[in-house]
Specification:
about 0% strand, mainly alpha
Amino acid sequence: MRGFFSALSFLTIVRINTAFDAKSAVRYFPLVGLLIGLGVYALSFIHGLFAYLAAVYCVFITRGLHLDGLADTSDAFFSLRDKVKMLEIMKDSRLGSFGVLAIVVVLLGRYAAFLHIKDYLMLIFIPSYSRFGCIYLMKKLPYGRKTGTAAPFFKQFNITDFLIGYAIILSSFFVIKGVLPFVVAGVFFVYTFLLFEYFKSKIGVITGDMLGFAIETTQLLLLLVVAIYDLYV
């Protein structure tokens, strides 16, 4: 359980008093995402305020960790600088204009999606999907720094690190009726692959900030997919 408690402590505001084990924590990222999703689903019973409360909850429960990565990565990638300079920009604690715009776009998009989503059960799984994608990116791309927040999580990955994530995706097909979970899973796999190709061509490595970017953009995309599905299908 030490790996799970380590993942929970790193990805959320919950703190468990146990020895931190980063390498064994990675496989539990999707499970922590599932718990976050259960919190979003619980808020769906608060009619009228759900969209606002869910949007705030997603920031609060993660203490803004992934939004910070989203902002830093956006500042770096849209600076149109070389690889070395982009890595420097991501390490800079100052927030630039592209970072601010990225946060605004994601938060507004998330709120708009929550306003129109009716398949609330799908909300349990989306945070899990977005964190599962991180494992794939960490396996496929080398870490871009000698030291850093995400450095302890990198290791030699094997199939067992992906089992929980695949099990959660598979379970969504049985929990949710219709084609929606298949659509969401399909979009997730395609976007994660495209994100990998983009990161590979753009900078060739990955950092903790880029993982935060991946989590936030994946989550937003899947929420919008569900919202569009509920509006038009």
